[in-house]
Write a structure and sequence with these properties.
The chain is α+β, with helices and mostly antiparallel strands. The chain has one domain. The protein is built from four helices and four strands. A four-stranded antiparallel sheet has the order 1-2-3-4. A hairpin with a 5-residue loop joins strand 1 and strand 2. Helix 3 packs across helix 4.
Amino acid sequence: MYTKHANIRMQQRGIPRFVVDLLLRYGKKTSARRGGRIYYFGNEGRKRVRRYLGRANARKFERYLKTVAIIDGGQVVTCVNRWDRRIWRD
């Protein structure tokens, strides 16, 4: 389930829904500062996604490996392309 805000941000940032699905499946999760969970691709998650997609598709997917999703109450609240920023955890 996606909030209206998440849908708008995903469209603005060019993040397809399948990226969020892969984040939820293979991503690492940690607590967010204001509640909820942060999902991102850690090293192991990146390897698993590459294996899942295969060599050719994995190359196309590289640009999405720094995507972060914030989930709260079972809904995707927002998605961000992380460019050399640290993920702040509590």
